[in-house]
Structures
1.
Amino acid sequence: MIFNSISFLIFFAIVFILYWFVSEKNLKLQNLLLLAASYAFYYWADSYFLILLIGSSAFNYLLGIYLDKTVSGKKKRLLFYLGIVQALGTLLYFKYFNFFIASIIGAFSSINISLNIHTLQIILPLGLSFYTFRTLSYIIDIYRGKIEPANDWVVFFCYVAFFPCISSGPIDRADLLIPQLEKKRTFTYDTGVDGARQILWGLFKKVIIANSCTAASDVIFQNYSILPGSALLMGAFFFTIGLYADFSGYSDMAIGLGRLLGFQLTKNFNYPFFAQNVADYWRRWHMSLTSWVTDYVFTPLSIAFRDLGKPGLIAAIILNMVVVGLWHGARWTFVLYGFIMGLYFIPLILTGNMGKKKIVEEDKLLPSFAQLRNMLATFTLVVVTNVIFRANSVADAIHYYSGLFSASLFSFPGKNVDLRLLVLAIAFLCIEWVQRNKDHVLQIQRIASPGLRWGIYIMITLAIVDYWTSSGHKSGFIYVKF
């Protein structure tokens, strides 16, 4: 069951009615309904691993309580490391075990040594990376004394399994979501309407922009060896736009669903293609992951390497970005992607510009020349580097680059690229630019005419329905597999 499906629409409608009209006056009953809905959603999507989700929740719930009550420093550290081993051990087994085995086999094979070991048939559980990071930060924050453990098991189990976020985030922290689960929620018309608008925009991004751009980029990446460099550039461009529209579309829908249920979830995207440099880009892209890794990976590393000065900071950034890359999956392309993204920070560190936030003024319709130059340079770096992210192997990425950076880069792509899709993608970016200071594009209250606003909503809805009925293309979200 995916957000962009009729089955989910029916599912959420039932949950919404029961949530607000049957159990509104009883917080415990409301949370139990939310937990049941989350487990039903998960079971529908991945029935095999629901028991793993429940087991992880129970383990970390009990561990959090014992960790908080333990006074002895030695015992407290033991419990803490037990939680780290459980979380990372589960993640390493399901997501990275075969990667390590295949890498070892390949390394020995390169020196003509054959190992009699084999990879296993391991299925990646739905949302494992997301809910593992959620429980991991929970245990770390209790150990550091930043939060107190949840006393109500229903509240904690809901925090781990909250169905709008379980498959692709955002990665909400315990200090944000658990307090909201512990207190009574009220439905307000304005919040509900704005949540519905955000869902509609997220659905538009997924169904119209992401599906169209991803389909076009897939054709180009599958046939890159026979296409000119100009078409390969468009393939990388369409992939980047499609990836963003897909993932940010999911995040918009998750946040909108959360608002309809009375929750304020973590913002996950802040118009990243208008970033002025790579550091700014990562402050705007997959923000819940970036802030998580910054707090729990980069900060400890930067403290450990602080005596090394700028070289230590560079090492911390590169290792941090490798973790970000590897989080996406067990492939050397993701490792290389993270490493190269880390390298892009070096000029910013050396010039002292890494922490500086450059923002285009709210009241300006057009950026200055310098701002436009910085945005285009950053966007180009992202598009070109995303070839590695998309490629099936490092070798495929190298071959793709050899075709991209050739004389044919300056040729006309012709029939290899749908120019109508290019116009649509550029128009999409222009709309986002105009609304860049809003939480989402459909916050159009400044349009005085209600008729015009409703006309926009109806046009978007009809476009989504038309795409659905004409193409029959109801693909899942990209980040579900991460």
2.
Amino acid sequence: MPDAADDRYELPVTVDLLADLQAGLLDDRTAARLRRRVRTDPAVKAQLAALDRVRRNLSALAVDSASAPDVPADVTATIGKALRSAPPPTP
């Protein structure tokens, strides 16, 4: 079995894995290995930069009152009721 620190056996870096890194969901060893990949692999670095841009853009929208009008309370109540009465998703 390969040692976990052996880079020859690195798994592909996915957007989900990078998002987990951003969210602080990875164990220290995995996070350190992934950060090393970000520093040494231009494609992985570009993916993480793109995720960072998305996070910044979403954050900016959260404080931009002109981005969309407030949703009326009756609309959110109707949506909530529909979601609560919907059957659970099937795998």
